[in-house]
Amino acid sequence: RGAARGALRGAIVGGLAALPAPPPAPKAPKPKSAARSNVVGAAASAPPQPRGPGRLDKRVDFLNAKFFKSSPIDADARAAIASLDPGRALEILKDLESKAPDIKKPSGYVQVAVRRELAAPDQVEQDNAKIHKRALWLNGRVFQANPIDDDAIGAMMGMGVMRAMELFKEVEEKADKMRNPSGYLKTAAVREGFKPPGSEGGGAAR
To answer: For the region Disordered, what residue ranges are annotated (predicted)?
Structure first.
């Protein structure tokens, strides 16, 4: 029995010796200094500081407060003019200010001016051709007795094709009561800052 126990003990000890050694325990990270930890933590938790309004926004705010309280330049017009070169954008706002007493829809003025500024020359020609074609169609089908005149067509070209088509639709829908479509269109153009060709001041679009 003693020999058997000795043999069993030897087998166990030999088996344990054959097992691979356990991996070394990972080293604990070195503690960072309290001062540095506080600085990093404060920077990470601090909310981003809001940026103040830019020069364009300040100018628009000024125009709204001084001239356009009842119909301020809206967010869409702000975004549109912000897409331009800042110098050119400020020129358009300066033009708008000079015509402020006559302009009832400053947002429309700004958006039309921006569209004209960004349009390629050949696109402007195509748009003007569409406006002229639509005016001739209205004259031939709706306003034979009192056709839309050249000054009104020119004013619509100054406003751009999108706004012109909206106004053409308005006069067509009101045709039964519309005695002077040219006057209606030119009044709308003046209200939005785009005077007919030959009128003092001209339009915003170049």
So the answer is: 16-56
Contacts 24+ apart (CB under 8 A), 173-181: 175/142, 175/143, 178/143, 179/146, 180/146, 181/138, 181/143, 181/146, 181/147, 181/148, 181/152
The pLDDT score that the predictor gives to residue 102 is 84
If asked whether residues 110 and 89 sit together in one domain, one would say yes
Report residue 123 CA to chain centroid gap.
21
When divided into structural domains, the chain yields a total of 2
More confident residue, 26 or 148: 148
Here the contacts of 57-62 (C-beta below 8 Å, separation 24 or greater) are: 59/90, 59/93, 60/93
CA angle in degrees (0–180, nearest 5) for 91-95-100:
140
Write down the residue that tokens 């696109």 correspond to.
123
Q: Is residue 109 domain-shared with residue 127, that is, in the same domain? A: no
Q: What is the pTM of this model?
A: 0.61
**What one-letter code names the amino acid at 200?**
E
> What confidence score (pLDDT) does residue 46 get?
53
The angle, 0 to 180 degrees and rounded to 10, between the axes of the packed helices 161-173 and 106-118 is 130
Mean pLDDT for the stretch of residues 95-100 = 92
Sign (positive or negative) of CA dihedral 86, 91, 105, 172: negative
